[in-house]
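[audit] Reproducing an earlier prediction to check determinism. Same input, same settings, fresh worker. If the C-alpha cells differ from the archived copy the diff job will pick it up downstream; this log only records the rerun itself.
[audit] input (336 residues):
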Amino acid sequence: MRYNPALDGLRALSILAVLMFHCGVPLARGGFVGVDVFFVLSGYLITSLLVQEHRNGGIEVGRFYSRRALRLCPTLLLMVATYLALAPLLWPADNRWLSATLASLYVYDYALAFWKLTYTIGHTWSLGVEEKFYLLWPLVLPFLLRARDPVRWLVVAFVLATAWRYLTAMHWTWSQAYFRFDTRISGILLGAIAALTQLRISRPALLLAWLGLAVLVVLPSLPGGHQVQAVTLRITLAELCAFVLVCHAAWYGKAPNGKATFLAARPLVFIGRLSYGIYIWHFPFVLVLRGTQPVWVQLFATLGFAMAMAVICLYCVDEPIKRWRQRTWPQMRSAA
C-alpha cells in the first residue's frame, strides 16, 4: 500500500484535538471528536490493506493478526508496566492490577460502559474498540467483497450501527453509548466505505467538512452537559466530516503528483507518525498535572512528554521490531 503523508497529517490534527480536550483548553471542549476521526481513518486504512491482500491472492489472517500485535502491543504494554510501577505513588486508590488487565486485554471499552472504574489508563478504551475491529474484519471482509454491492451493505450497516448508538444513548446511559465497540463501529464502517468507494470530494464539501469539525471541537460537551447529543448527533457529524477528509486525503495521495498540501506539511506528518505513541502516553501525564498547573502549561508539558515517549517507542521499540519482522517475513514488506 502506497504511503500517503496526508493521512498522517489528519492523524496529527486528531491527536492534537484529543490532547487539548483532555488538558481542558477552553476552545477545545469538544476535542473528543478527534477519536471519531481516528476510527474513520482506521476503517479506511485497514480495509484498504485487506482489500489489496484479497486481490493479491487472499487475506492471510494469521499474518494480519501478528502484524497488528507487533505494531500495537509493545508500546501499550510498556505504558501499562510503567503505570503499574508508578500507581502506588501517584494513584494509590486505583485498583491497578484490574486496570492493567483490562487495558492489556483491550476490554476497557466495555468495562467503562458498565462499571465504575478509575480512569487513569481508561483512555485505552478506544484501543479496545479498534482491536475488536482488527479481530473481526479480516474474517468478515472476504464474504462482503463477494456480494454484488458491498458498499450498499456497508451503508446499511452504518445506518444500523448509528441507530443502535442513538437507542442506547436515549434509553440507557451516555457512557454505554460512547465507549462500547458495538455502538462505536459506525465510524469504522464509514472508513471502510471510503476505502471501497474512493470518492473525489468537491471543494465546497471539503470546506464544509473542515468547518463542521472546527465547530464540533470548539463547542463544549462531554463530560459535562449535552451528553446524549454528544454521543448521537455530534458523533455522526464528526464521522461524516472525517469521511469527507479521509476521502480527500486518499484521492490526492493516489493521484499522480497529487497531495493534500496542508495535511502533508512536514510538522503535521511528523506528529501523525507519532500519534499512536502520543495517545498511549499522554493521558496519565495529564492527570498528574491536572489542577496543579495552568491549562497551557499542562498542554505544552503533556505534548512534550508524550512526543518524547512516542519517539523513544518508535525508534527503540517499533522500528527494531519492524526490521525484525521484515527479515523474518520478507514477502510482507510491501504490506508494512
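[audit] rerun output stored. Observation attached for the diff report: Residues 332-336 have pLDDT under 50 and may be disordered.
[audit] end
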